[in-house]
Amino acid sequence: MVQRFDVGPRLSEMAVYNGTVYLAGQVPSDATQDAQGQTQQVLAAIDALLARAGTDKTRILMAQIFIADLADFPGLNAAWDAWVPAGHTPPRATVEARLAKPEWKVEIVVTAAL
């Protein structure tokens, strides 16, 4: 059985299937902040969704990061490094991409185990 959370007309924020949690791309709620601030917001949203599913960031299997400008890479990494637990750094890919809203600096997609 697939369990979906926050189902909307276009997407669900999260789906759980067969012991795996799939998150939609998470974006900042306050796009006026710099890349580090936006990344902190996104990581907090990921924490909240994973908690709702009954898991946490120590069980992340893969993170895909989309950043609008690679010049913001140091700010993104500062927020990431402060957030990710030592010994639990997941595989990660980071690519520069044009995001859906020009004011967004970062979007993160996470897959985690229950």
Automatic annotation (TrEMBL):
Per its UniProt record, what Pfam families does this chain match? Ribonuc_L-PSP
PROSITE patterns with a match to the protein in the record = UPF0076
CDD domains (UniProt xref)? YjgF_YER057c_UK114_like_2
What family does this chain come from, according to its entry?
Belongs to the RutC family.
The name on file for this protein is Enamine deaminase RidA (YjgF/YER057c/UK114 family)
